[in-house]
Backbone:
């Protein structure tokens, strides 16, 4: 597979091999490492891109890169050609793999301008459009379970593959919360009989199985609940719904229409995740697969795309509210605060009346009523805990 159109350019190989590098991380793999990171003896960063082989040996175009620009490439905000053109403007190299990438690679300096070499890849190659490898599918088959791989590039990952503990905990919390609400939304579309037939215990939960995979800072999770006899996981219902939300991340207008169609707790959780990404100056990529998949499902939102998405979605009123109907006996009321309670067959529900909302005057304690409410969720920062509040919109005797 060729990343871009490549033609052989008559560069001269010098015998002065003064530098060598070591492969550190494969960024794009297709029948072999196509793009990888490397370091020299003093920690300098390099990017290597496969070009046409020479005498049957793999050959790479190599250029030293600034850590910040490398992070932008890994995050999908800088294309490969631009990065190499910039990095190789003054100095670039060729390297032939003689003994495999686990051995040092000798760099041969080139004197011709890189722009004239014909070795630069085509424009528009963005890393997040190309999964580094099919890790999610590989792990799903090995574990015989649904696996989700998520990758991110916060600023602290510019010089090495690392992430602040608070950022990691927050990211995993937001992802798990979104999956929980996606599963709930998927179940509501089933018939009552179908819902009752499903064992929903821990169906939305995930466990971390690989804390930090190689490459961009990546975490691999698997479904906490084992799949059924057909190898299918209940969690797939949730991730299919999450895929829909991320489908048009690069197009705010289309994304707005999609999120409106899924308004409710899932939409609110999605918006909170996006705001978290803005705060931590990073994008997000993920892949997921079940053991019987032929290829994993991929979605991504680049750092440059997150801000416009948040701006558009934040303008939608009541995006995260869900309609809830309760029938029961009027249990308590506080006319000063607008607080109320309704005893239903499922237990006691409490809620509030917003300023300007329906009056509670005339309702009798012990009387049976039907309450139409909007349930909204507020997340407690740093804890992952959610506070649910029911706001009464109208009521009638039942």
Residues:
């Amino acid at each position: 597979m060729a990343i871009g159109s490549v033609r052989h350019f008559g560069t001269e190989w010098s015998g002065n091999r003064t530098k060598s590098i070591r492969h550190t991380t494969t960024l794009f793999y297709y029948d072999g490492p196509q793009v990888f990171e490397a370091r020299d003896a003093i920690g300098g960063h390099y990017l290597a891109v496969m070009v046409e082989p020479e005498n049957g040996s793999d050959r790479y175009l190599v250029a030293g890169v600034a850590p910040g620009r490398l992070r932008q490439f890994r995050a999908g905000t800088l294309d490969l050609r631009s990065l190499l053109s910039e990095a190789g403007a003054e100095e670039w190299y060729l390297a032939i793999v003689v003994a495999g990438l686990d051995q040092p690679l000798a760099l041969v300096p080139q004197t011709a301008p890189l722009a004239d070499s014909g070795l630069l890849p085509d424009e528009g190659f963005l890393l997040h459009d190309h999964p580094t490898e099919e890790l999610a599918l590989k792990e799903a088959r090995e574990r015989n379970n649904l696996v989700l791989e998520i990758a991110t590039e916060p600023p602290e990952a510019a010089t090495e593959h690392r992430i602040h503990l608070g950022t990691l905990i927050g990211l995993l919390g937001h992802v798990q919360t979104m999956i929980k609400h996606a599963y709930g939304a998927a179940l509501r579309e089933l018939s009552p009989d179908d819902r009752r037939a499903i064992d929903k215990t821990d169906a939305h939960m995930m466990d971390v199985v690989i804390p930090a995979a190689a490459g961009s800072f990546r975490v691999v999770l698997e479904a906490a609940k084992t799949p059924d006899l057909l190898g299918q996981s209940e969690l797939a219902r949730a991730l299919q719904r999450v895929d829909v939300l991320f489908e048009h991340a690069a197009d705010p207008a289309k994304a707005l229409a999609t999120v409106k169609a899924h308004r409710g707790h899932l939409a609110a959780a999605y918006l909170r995740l996006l705001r978290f990404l803005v705060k931590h100056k990073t994008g997000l990529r993920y892949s997921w697969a079940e053991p019987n998949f032929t290829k994993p499902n991929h979605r991504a939102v680049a750092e440059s795309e997150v801000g416009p998405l948040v701006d558009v979605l934040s303008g939608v009123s009541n995006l995260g509210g869900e309609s809830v109907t309760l029938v029961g006996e009027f249990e308590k009321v506080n006319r000063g605060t607008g607080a109320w309670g309704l005893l239903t067959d499922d237990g006691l529900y409490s809620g509030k009346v917003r300023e300007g909302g329906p009056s509670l005057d005339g309702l009798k304690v012990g009387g049976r009523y039907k309450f139409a409410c909007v349930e909204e969720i507020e997340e407690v920062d740093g804890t992952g805990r959610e506070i649910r509040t029911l706001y009464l919109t109208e009521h009638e005797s039942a």
